[in-house]
Amino acid sequence: MPVDVHVHVIVEPWAPTQEREKQPRWYQRIRIAYHTACALAGLTLCGPWAWVLASVRDEASLAGAWVMALIPLVVVAFLDNARRIEARHADPELWRPKWRAALARTLLWAAILATALTLPITTTVLLMTGVQP
């Protein structure tokens, strides 16, 4: 015995109760001086991490170095996102969330720069020639 099921859905058009204020687009919100300062500070911090990645690349394996680079990079990116959101929603007079967000962004730049300076050239040479340099 077949069962007939009838579903009635009423869709009402959504109308916002108040007009949202215009916000600048994402590329207009980028703070170039802030990111440049964080990148320069991260460049000074990336040396020891690049040295560790280079020693793992040379002594263990290239894949191990990539894994060792990407896992902390993901963790620091998640921490950076959390600190940035915390700073955005904090009281404007509080400096501590802003400093923590800047420190997390600097560490993210350090991890990105250490990975970019250490691993891609060796990976490209290995993929093109098949020989570990």
Attribute tags:
4 helices; mainly alpha; single chain; 133 residues
Walk me through the topology.
Layout: H1 32-59, H2 62-89, H3 96-118, H4 120-129
Describe this protein's structure.
The protein is mostly helical and 133 residues long. It is built from four helices and no strands. The chain is flat.
Structure classification: mainly alpha
Assign a percent range to the helix content.
Answer: 55-70%
Radius of gyration: 24 Å
- The N- and C-terminal alpha carbons lie at a distance of 73 Å
Report the β-strand fraction as a percent range: under 5%
Low-confidence stretches: none
Number of helices: 4
Strand segment tally: 0
Mean pLDDT: 88
The rough form would be described as flat
User: Would you list the SSEs in sequence order as H and E?
Assistant: HHHH
Multimeric status of the protein:
single chain
Question: How would a crystallographer describe the biggest sheet?
Answer: none
Short summary:
With 133 residues, the chain is mainly alpha-helical. Helix content is 67%, strand content 0%.
